[in-house]
């Protein structure tokens, strides 16, 4: 047997790590004679050429795996929206010679956590198991991906569950606003279509559709794997081949998702007789590969993603009491990049809230943050980074996410250096590029006083 590992070490100060370790079930490899705490990440390549990133930790007998496949709901065929979501709900409902009840019973008896999910750009699976059930857990995971049964009973049960969820979503103002924003910003692009589908599309899905999805999307060429916990590189190399080696190397040719910039669609008001209006607002963001991405990330923390330390929260909630919550996040997708936020308040205050949000965006674009705001944001973002590694599941999913986002393994230890390197001039330049209140697409659900569709 041959396998290849490439190791690196990401070090944390003892003071920083003490804040994270209280919540840790398992994560960080501790060098007993080292003055620093450390997490080791390695590339492991199996004899069959399957690569995974591994954080090895034998402190407790637990292991987690995360796998991601490029594609997701954006590849759902027109008229079959919700296909990826439905498959995600069915892969753990029976496989190979085990029907749904037998498969679920086996998972429960062995304390194996196995699940799948889908979003716009990816289809993901996760596995958590104890060391003594590791081999069986990986076998069940392989069977779920390569031999799903899609029996009539679970198919109809999961279909009914999705339809019930869609029925509730029809009256949920946040869901209404989010889906309407996607439609307004993306038009006919696949990103505009609902990830969970519609009642019509879900009812139309067949077993052939489900099987076609697995053949098309669960392929090794689109796969990234992260693993953390009680396993050696040699053991993982063997399991990579036995678990993923029977997946197709590539899938049939598909229509690729084109890149798209969000439209400037102005204001849309969707009237609902509810006491509190909900708004989603957003515009173009920056992609991860943009040279200003990390500067924009820090600037946006200051504006809207920093919780109670953000300008939006301070101006809208703390100073004026206009809303309980207000936020703005960078949302880089595979084929677009967004700066998107939200606010909820009573109908009489929605216009004032949106006016203030626009004013803060304009102020940030014109003048950028202060030096103190920048220093405080960088201190928090650097210090909080270890909290992403507080369980084997969190570590494994982070390793997979970094690969899906196109980062090299060195990003694990270089990320904080990128944050630290952001200067005031960088943050001001990024803010000027990022924020344009006149380019916002805004959707409000409710009966907001003084607002009507297509007004700015």
UniProtKB/TrEMBL annotation:
Peptidase M16 N-terminal domain: residues covered: 56-194
Keywords for the protein's UniProt record, in alphabetical order: Hydrolase, Protease
Gene Ontology biological process terms, A to Z: proteolysis
SUPFAM superfamilies in alphabetical order: LuxS/MPP-like metallohydrolase (SSF63411)
Source domain of life: Bacteria
Domain (Peptidase M16 C-terminal): residue spans on this chain: 205-380
Any GO molecular function: metal ion binding
InterPro entries (alphabetical): Metalloenz_LuxS/M16, MPP/UQCRC_Complex, Pept_M16_N, Peptidase_M16_C
Pfam families: Peptidase_M16 (PF00675), Peptidase_M16_C (PF05193)
Transmembrane segments: none
Protein name, as recorded: Zinc protease
Organism: Insolitispirillum peregrinum
């Amino acid at each position: 047997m041959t396998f290849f590992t490439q190791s690196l070490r990401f070090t944390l100060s003892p003071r920083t790590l003490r804040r994270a370790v209280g919540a840790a079930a398992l994560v960080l490899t501790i060098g007993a004679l080292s003055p620093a705490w450390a997490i080791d990440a390695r590339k492991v390549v199996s004899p069959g050429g399957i690569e995974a990133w591994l954080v090895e930790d034998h402190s407790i007998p637990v292991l987690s795996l995360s796998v991601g496949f490029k594609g997701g709901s954006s590849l759902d065929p027109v008229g079959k929206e919700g296909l990826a979501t439905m498959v995600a709900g069915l892969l753990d409902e029976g496989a190979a010679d085990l029907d749904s009840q037998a498969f679920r019973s086996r998972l429960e008896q062995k304390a194996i956590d196995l699940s799948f999910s889908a979003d716009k750009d990816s289809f993901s699976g996760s596995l958590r198991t104890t060391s003594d059930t590791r081999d069986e857990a990986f076998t069940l995971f392989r069977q779920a991906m390569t031999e799903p049964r899609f029996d009539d009973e679970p198919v109809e049960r999961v279909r009914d569950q999705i339809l019930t969820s869609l029925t509730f979503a029809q009256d949920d103002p946040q869901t209404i606003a989010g889906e309407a924003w996607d439609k307004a910003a993306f038009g006919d692009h696949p990103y505009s279509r609902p990830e969970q589908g519609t009642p019509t599309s879900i009812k139309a899905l067949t077993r052939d559709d489900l099987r076609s999805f697995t053949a098309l999307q669960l392929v090794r060429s689109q796969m990234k794997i992260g693993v953390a916990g009680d396993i050696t590189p040699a053991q993982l190399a063997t399991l990579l081949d036995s678990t993923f080696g029977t997946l197709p190397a590539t899938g049939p040719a598909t229509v690729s998702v084109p890149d798209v910039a969000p439209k400037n669609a102005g204001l849309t008001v969707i009237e609902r007789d509810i006491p509190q209006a909900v708004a989603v607002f957003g515009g173009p963001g920056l992609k991860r590969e943009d040279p200003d991405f990390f500067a924009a990330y820090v600037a946006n923390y200051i504006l809207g993603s920093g919780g109670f330390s953000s300008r939006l929260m301070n101006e809208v909630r703390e100073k004026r009491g206009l809303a309980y919550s207000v936020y703005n996040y960078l949302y880089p997708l595979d084929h677009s990049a967004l700066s998107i936020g939200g606010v909820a308040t009573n109908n009489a205050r929605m216009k004032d809230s949106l006016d203030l949000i626009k004013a803060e965006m304009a102020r940030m674009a014109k003048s950028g943050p202060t030096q103190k705001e920048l220093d405080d944001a960088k201190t928090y973002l650097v210090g909080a980074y270890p909290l992403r590694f507080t369980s084997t599941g969190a570590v494994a999913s982070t390793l997979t996410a970094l690969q899906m986002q196109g980062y090299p393994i060195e990003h694990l230890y270089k990320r904080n250096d990128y944050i630290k390197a952001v200067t005031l001039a960088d943050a001001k330049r990024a803010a000027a590029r990022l924020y344009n209140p006149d380019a916002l697409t805004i959707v409000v659900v409710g009966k907001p006083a003084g607002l009507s569709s297509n007004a700015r």
